[in-house]
Amino acid sequence: MSRDHVQPAAPSLDSAEVPFLELLARGASADVYEQPTLLARAEGRSAERVAALEAAKRLALRVRSELEGRRRREAELSALFETAHDLAGLRDLDAVLQAIVQRARSLLGTDVAYLSLNDPKRGDTYMRVTEGSVAARFQQLRLGMGEGLGGLVAQTARPYVTDDYFKDDRFRHTLTIDAGVRDEGLVAILGVPLTLGHHVIGVLFAADRRARVFEREQTALLGSFAALAAAAIDAANLLAETRSALNELERANEIIRDRSGVIERASDVHDRLAELVLRGGGVHDVAAAVSEILDGTVEFTDTAPTGPLETSRAEGHAVRHKDDWIAAVAAGGELLGALVLRGHPGLDPVDQRTLERAAMVTSLLLLARRSAAEAEQRVRGELLDDLLDARDRDPRLLRERAARLKADLDATHVVLAARLDGDTADADQEAAARRRLWSAASHLAATRQGLAAARDGGTVLLLPLTDGDTATALARRTAGHLTTAVHEAVTVGASAPVRDLAARPDAVAAAYEEGRRCLDALRLLGRTGDGAAAEDFGFLGLLLAGDRDIEGFVERTIGRVVAYDERRGTDLVRTLDAYFAGGMSPARTKDVLHVHVNTVAQRLERVGRLLGEDWQSPERVLEIQLALRLHRLSGPARQ
Asked: What are the start-end ranges of the H helices in 281-320?
């Protein structure tokens, strides 16, 4: 039989390799690869079997490492491809550079990314685009050639990296540059040159606010982004020259003029959409702008007909449905909605691409808004969790973290405990309701410059208390707002006002416990869906209050009587003591005080004007007697 007709033997696998192949197939983490060997040892397998498993494990880990490296390289190449694709579609230089900086920051996983351009007239390099920066002085930095890390990159056309900038003496440190870097809080910095031919035109940076070692592959990747950025700058300059040439040709040739009109229209669409995005416009702003451009009615909806919507998502183009056009708004595998052009069956290719581009911009806006909201909610929750757990006791760091969220820990705040009171037997429905509560509370905290976090099956908020406001009023408003937002009853218990949170982070935990006690009291009293603070429960508030605000209780209950005695030198407090000690009998009271019964009546009438007509009701009597007793215990008794 010839070699051409020999059937190859079926491949066989060593049994030692099988478990590791299964781990590779499901993408298991590296530590799981120890399990087959550990199991074999536990089962008392032979040394040969254990050795075979060890060899197979090492081979599998090498394969896994190689696969991970390839996936990482694929992700990097994909990002570079997407950026190159953006260069072909974007005409605004700032938008292109911003996209490059954003992708560089995302792919390298750094806190900040930024780009500087050289100024030949001034002989320095200046900050052009930043992403993740929070310090104004840093965003306005100019670096002389050879100054700092960036100035050295711009001068030498070589990449430089440091894992701790302030400890690195390779760079010429200046007061201006170091102040800007310190304001931004940067520690580890990587900078690569932007070059056109042999000329350096700027520097692309990636930086972290903690010590970090940048790998050689990351330096190479940032260098690739720098090459794209340089190409974008060159392309923008060429595009400006091309537009000028087109304008001249328009005047000379009617055909070219008509074609240029189409180009200008597409450019106008892009510019208007880019302007909307850059100034923070929303989905409905995009729909309104496209409605005007297409001279029709464009709406964003999540209830478009399923068939045309799925076709649009699959093909990536707008699809006609009766007299309407539908463009799917999607990101990855997630369908976010659709842009629908109503009653406009005749649509030329340029207008169709306009609708499709608007759908793409809409998806980016939705994802950006979602990511930003989720990130801010997460950061606000982490800061409040740290305050509740008193993990970070450095007042300066706490204030800095709060300031980045536009919160002021030196202001007076109230801690509010919020919980849903709807009854549901479905665990999924309950979890969804809690997520709605958390989302609504986070939104409220962001708009009120406060903080919110999920805790103990509910939500805790830290909100500032404005002048003239009270903890009670704030609790009731919060309960009403959250109830409306989640469409279920939300009960809110509030603490007494707390101050100096940065210096006393443990005060937040104590205030939260007080708010929870108020919440429990409201639920026990059947006041679900309401809001209250400890001061609303009278003497019961003394039991609820974490700091036992005795002075506050006495002041609220009999403060006007005490103040009247101090101003007028009268004996109303002593008269009240005798009155209650005598079983609320004016006759027995006058015997104790050795005054006429009419004097007693006049004094009690004065008390009634100070405390209100219901001061002798059973509830008020109990509170007044408790306040009198606390008043005697807290200071010297009148003789």
From this structure: 283-294, 306-315
